[in-house]
Amino acid sequence: MRWALALAMLLAGCGAQPQRLAPPVSLPVENTLTLPMRDEHGVSHQLAARLCRPPGSSPAPLVVINHGAPAERAYASLMVPTSCGSGPARWFNARGYAVLFALRRGFGTSTGEAASSGRCNDPDYVSAGLAEARDIAAIVEYGQGLSGIARDGLVVVGQSTGGWAVLAYDTLPHPPLVGMIVVAGGRGQNEASCRPERLIAGAARFGTASRTPMLWVYARSDLSFGPQLAVAMHEAFTHAGGRAELVQPEVSGPDGHGLFYMAGGDAVWGPIFDRYLKRR
Questions:
Q1: Tag placement on the chain: N or C end, fewer CB within 10 Å?
Q2: CATH number for the domain including 148?
Q3: Looking at the domain assignment, is residue 217 inside a domain?
Q4: Are 227 and 257 in contact (CB under 8 A)?
């Protein structure tokens, strides 16, 4: 069973969970939660979640961080909500944010079926993104109702498939946001064989109804959604009416797709996030 536990820990951040970091000087308050939601058919589901509060008693603004998906669907059941010791949790906690990690339907112990884009040769990326946007809506609503969470200052972040779901979420009615950040967002890893033109068309579709000025961060070495595809999606999104700043940092290593969760990744994305959030 040791291998299963180790694999579950690895998958907590969609295959990019950071290496073990030294504990922060003051540990955040950690709570394990189960969030309720209803799907588009009115069926109830339970989502596994972890809340990482910063030290102190003042109401904290909320950051909802949305995970990606493992390349192999069989590993989705082994996922767990990202740790409060992870780089993203520690970075936001240090700036006074409470961080809510939740597993969408079909991941880990969250009930229901994970959204599917369908066959690789005929994917429906828009419908899959909208399905997962419903999960984000439920997570945000529940998180903002928690004791000790401020009603203003909300930030929504998504990585990989979670980032694509964030694009879809902005097309739905939602509370006022300070910021919306997409890191390596997309669906259909190894997209060269999974109709990348449909990702571009999907970005344009979401851009027509997007309302929040976003930040998009795609490492230039991302092997799932490379720099040319990121530019094409961004151009389609903004030409359709969406507002987003695209930043493509250089990242050492063979694959920058896991930048957000990799050990030391916040040294790259942290200053980019800081600039965006200060402007917002």
A1: N
A2: 3.40.50.1820
A3: yes
A4: no
pLDDT in tens, 50-98: 999 998 878 999 999 999 999 888 899 999 999 999 999 999 999 999 9
Look at residues 57, 233, 73 and name the one whose alpha carbon lies nearest to residue 149: 57
What is the C-alpha to C-alpha distance for residues 17 and 118, in angstroms, rounded to an integer?
A: 27
User: Quick one: DSSP state of residue 25?
Assistant: S
- What would the pLDDT profile of 135-149 be if each residue is shown by its tens digit? 999 999 999 999 999
- Residues of the domain holding 179: 2-17+29-279
Residue 193, SS3? helix
Strand, helix or coil for residue 38: strand
CB 170 within 8 A of CB 210: yes
Cα pseudo-dihedral 90, 263, 33, 181, rounded to 10:
70
Examine residue 248 and state whether it is found in any structural domain, yes or no. Answer: yes
Residue 111: closest CA among 48, 165, 41, 161: 48
